[in-house]
């Protein structure tokens, strides 16, 4: 018997509902880079790691907001009309999940960056260093991931 088909595939309708829901919770590095490159203002990227990790390299334009410090008071300055994309080191770190959970529990719209900073760097997207968020570099046409 087929290992793949041992458990039957979902119906097309169930697959559609599941996959749409999955994309509501996550974004990937290529999609985020494309939006940052277009300088869209309705997305805010949050680096949920500790300040030392942020200073050592982060996504251009990301703000450092460690998940451990998120609460009603510290998030009061955030614009609730924006979508917040959280990230941490990568798939071995759950800081982005903790940040997204805290933000969602406080009424913010959130998505997690799949693969975090690891996948961002693997795909060759720009980084910046230090305390400042940095600006998205203005250069030639964006690369394509081929997917």
Structure, explained:
This protein has 147 residues and is an alpha/beta fold. The protein has a domain at 27-128: Oxidized Rhodanese, domain 1, CATH 3.40.250.10. It is built from five helices and seven strands, in the order H-E-H-E-H-E-E-E-H-E-H-E. The chain has helices spanning 12-25, 29-37, 51-55, 95-105, 116-122, and strands at 26-27, 43-47, 58-59, 63-64, 83-87, 109-113, 127-128. The strands form two sheets. Strands 1-6-5-2-4 form a five-stranded parallel β-sheet. A two-stranded antiparallel sheet has the order 3-7. Strand 5, helix 4 and strand 6 (109-113) form a beta-alpha-beta unit. The longest helix is centred in the N-terminal third of the chain and has 14 residues, at 12-25. The protein is globular, with a radius of gyration of 17 Å. This is Rhodanese. It holds the Pfam family Rhodanese. It comes from Pantoea deleyi. Residues 39-129 form the Rhodanese domain. InterPro entries: GlpE_sulfurtransferase (IPR050229), Rhodanese-like_dom (IPR001763), Rhodanese-like_dom_sf (IPR036873).
- Report the β-strand fraction as a percent range: 15-25%
H and E order: HEHEHEEEHEHE
Poorly predicted runs of 5 or more residues = none
Share of residues in helices: 25-40%
Decide which structural class fits the backbone: alpha/beta
Organism: Pantoea deleyi
Protein name: Rhodanese
Domain Rhodanese: 39-129
InterPro entries: GlpE_sulfurtransferase (IPR050229), Rhodanese-like_dom (IPR001763), Rhodanese-like_dom_sf (IPR036873)
């Amino acid at each position: 018997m087929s290992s793949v088909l041992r458990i039957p595939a979902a119906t097309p309708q169930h697959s559609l509902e599941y996959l749409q829901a999955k994309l509501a919770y996550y974004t990937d590095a290529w999609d985020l880079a494309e939006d940052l490159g277009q300088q869209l203002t309705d997305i805010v990227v949050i680096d949920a790691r500790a300040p030392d990790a942020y200073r050592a390299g982060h996504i251009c334009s990301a703000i450092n907001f460690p998940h451990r410090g998120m609460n009603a008071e510290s998030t009061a300055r955030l614009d609730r009309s924006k979508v917040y994309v959280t990230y941490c080191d990568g798939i071995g770190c759950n800081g982005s999940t903790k940040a997204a959970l805290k933000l969602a529990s406080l009424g913010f719209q959130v998505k997690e960056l799949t693969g975090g900073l690891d996948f961002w760097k693997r795909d060759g997207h720009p980084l910046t260093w230090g305390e400042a968020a940095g600006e998205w570099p203005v250069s030639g046409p964006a690369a394509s991931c081929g997917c």
